[in-house]
Each structure stands twice: as structure tokens, then as C-alpha cells.
Please model this.
Amino acid sequence: MPTPLLLVIGVVVGAAVGALVAYLWVGNANRQRDFVSNAEREKLLSDAETQMKEMVLEAKEEAHRIRMSLEQEVRDARAEIQRSERRVQQKEESIDRKLEDLDRKDQAVTAKELEIGRTRERVNDALAEQVKELERISGMTRAEARTTILTNLEKELNQEIAQKIREGEVIVKEESEKRARNILVTAMQRVAAEQTAETSVSVVAIPSDEMKGRIIGREGRNIRALEHATGVDLIIDDTPEAVILSGFDPVRREVARVALNHLLVDGRIHPARIEEMVTKARGDVQNRIREEGEQAMFETGVTGLHPELVKLLGTLAFRTSYGQNVLTHSKEVSFLCGMAAAEIGADVALAREAGLLHDIGKAIDHEVEGSHAIIGGELLKRLGKPDTLVNAVAAHHMDVEPTSLEAILTVACDAVSAARPGARRETLTTYIKRLEKLESIANSFEGVEKSFAIQAGREIRIIVKPDTIDDSRAQILARDIAKRIEGELSYPGQIKVTVIRETRIVEFAK
Model:
């Protein structure tokens, strides 16, 4: 408001000043121009006054217009302020209503809490009365009832655990054996071969028992010459038409066998001829060793082996492990490794070579101290074989940590070949000790009445006390015994654990 009034006043003052200036200018002009008449001066003054009045009038009109405009703006501003005030008031009223609703809800919640508290007290009182009534009816205290309930719950949990174990075992078997069966069983069937059961003795058939005297010679000189040349003991006893060769070195035993066969065919048996035939037999056996090594390379598809490795590989044809021919076992492991590697995408050539050479240390383990796996690894390293192959051979009995997939395949396929039924045989003492240990493990568990190892140690049947072990506990017991056997026993293949629980009730009619 003050600013527009000042503007109007300024306009009016400006007009008056303009009129005064015009008047003075006219007067000055009149004085300067003497030649202008008085009539003209009056006209000029009249015009100036008229202009001044018009200017004043225009100034008033402009001031009025400005005033009206400002008043309209003020009215609009006041209206907007009023609308804003109404909106604020409405919001305040809405907030007040919400606060009132919250207060009511808070009071309702408080009332509910009080009611719940009173209800809880009534429920606790009712439960206490029920517990007392149950104790009176059942004749058991609360602690006794809790013990009974926990016992029943434990039985139920044992049943559920046994069920879960059975379901888990089924799932694991289906998933784990699905692929392994396709790889290992198929591979075993394809490479299954007749196993040679050799021992530390060889039997040589002779045409007649009369040849025994000629083999012994005068005062035993022939037999001494043969034993001295071959390093093998000749046993000539009452066995009809047979001579037994005994020695720990199968190559020496083979040399003696070949030499003796040559002597029997030739018919001339004396020390000089014996030395000649032993030398010839030694050459024949070396040729056979080389041929066996080359044949093994050809059958397994392994090429580029060092001549020394070929010779040592052929030597394995005359060595056995638990009655299993080592060279045949090595070829079988090579086949298994190659097929398994092809199935899982590993290096087939490396896996075959590792399987063929994994027992190469057995050819020289009687000359060098240490595990045959470590000996074989050091031999391959000395001959410049790659580290992956060296590790696969050295780690096949876990003497060192396997560092490649091919090394793990070698471990697995070696176990498969050795554990295949009929592949190996144990000594009687070891066999008996293993069965006794198997039964002692089963008998060490609580609730076991007696146990029997059957099926040549491939199954253990366990009779449990029915009043101590229930059906669900029997399932858990079978699993515990199996885990204990896996941890404490070394055995080929697998052992079936059968837990038998039966209740017999006997009554006599008198």
C-alpha cells in the first residue's frame, strides 16, 4: 500500500513541477521575445494550464487504476490465505481425529492385554488342576510322566531317524551307483580275465620216477650243480613223476624250470650240460620277459616306453600278489583306467599308462627298500617320465597325496581289480584273523547277543537281544557296525551287515 501512494504523489508532484517549469519557460520566453503580443502570451498560458490540468487528471486516473489493481491483488492474496488456513485447519482436525482413534486403540489393546493376562492365569490354574488330576488318575508324578513321554518320543525319533537313514541310503545308492555301475561294472566285464594262481613253488613233470636219480646224480652232484647255477632249491620227494622247484624269485624259478625241461628232453644230465642249459634257459626267459612287456604295451595301447620299463614290465608276468598275477592285474587296471577316463573326460592315454605301470615297483622291490609305489614313482622320475604320471604311480596306495584326476582313477581302478571276486586269495592265517576281528567288532556293541562271519567273510550276521534292541534301533546298529568295520578293517570288496532281531516265546503244556 505505501509504495503505490508514493508513486501517485510522485506523479502529481511531477506534473505540478512540469507546469511550473512550463510557466517559467513561457515567462522567460515572453521577456526574451518583446515582439510577441500579449494575446499570444495569454494563449500560451492558457494552453499550459490546460496541459497541466490534463496531466494532473491523467495522473489521478493512473493512480486510481493502480489503486484498484493493488486492492484486487490484496483481495486475491487474502482469499488464498483463507483457503490455506482452511486446509491447515482441516489437516489439524484430521490429525486430532487420528490421535483420538490411536488413543482408543491403545486403550483397547491395554484392555486386551489385561484380559489375556487374566485368561493366562485361568489357563495356568486349569493346567495345574489337570496335571494334578492326571497324576491322580495315572498314578505317576510329573517327573515320571515327563520321563515316559521323553522315552516314547525318543523311540519315535529313532524310528524317524531309521526311516530317514533308509531313505537316504536308497537315494545315495541310486545317485552314486548309477554312473559308477555303468563305468566300473561294464569295464570289469570287458577286461575280466582268467587269473593265474601261482605260489612260491613250481612243479616240473618228469617222464618217470627213474629220472629222479639221474637228476640227483652221483653223490648229488647234478642237483647241486643245478641249484648252484639257478639259485633255486630242487625238492625231490615221494611225489610221483614230479620235481618241485622252490624259490622266492619267480624269474629264477622260471629259468630253473625251463633248464630242467631242456635237460629232460635232451637226456644228457651232467654238470657241464646243466650250466649250458641254464645259460640257454636264462636267454630264453629274458626273451620271454621282453615279449611279455611288449605284448602288454600292445594290448593296452601304451607306446614309447623305455626299454628298461619294458623289461621290468615283462618281469611282472612271473610275480604274483595274493595269488593274482601282477602283469595281468596291471593290464586290467590299465583297461579300467582308460575306460573310466573316457567316461569322465580325463586324459585316456595318461590313465592307461598309469594303470599299466602302477605296480612297476614290484619288479625291483626285492632289491630296493621301501614301498613298491614309492619305488615305482622314483624309477619313472629317474627315466624322465612326467610328474603327473610319477604322482599317479606313487600315490596309488595313498603313500603320497594324489594331485590329478588320473591319479585318483589309478587308486580306484587298482582297488576294483584287486577286490573283484576271485582275483586274489589270502593266506589262511590272515583270513582267520580278519574273520575273528570282524566278529569281535560286532560283539563289542551293546545289545548284541552273538555274531557269525559267513560267506568267506563277505557277510556278518548279528543276533541282537530283542528286549534291548527294537526295530528302529536295529537299523541304526547295522549302520554303526558297518561304519566301524569300514574304519578298522582292510578287506577286498564289501561286507554285508545283517542284523537279526526275533522274539521267541516258549511255553510248556503239562
In short: Strands lie at 201-205, 233-235, 242-246, 320-321, 324-325, 448-454, 459-464, 496-500. The first strand starts at residue 201 and ends at 205. Confidence is low (pLDDT under 50) at residues 192-198.
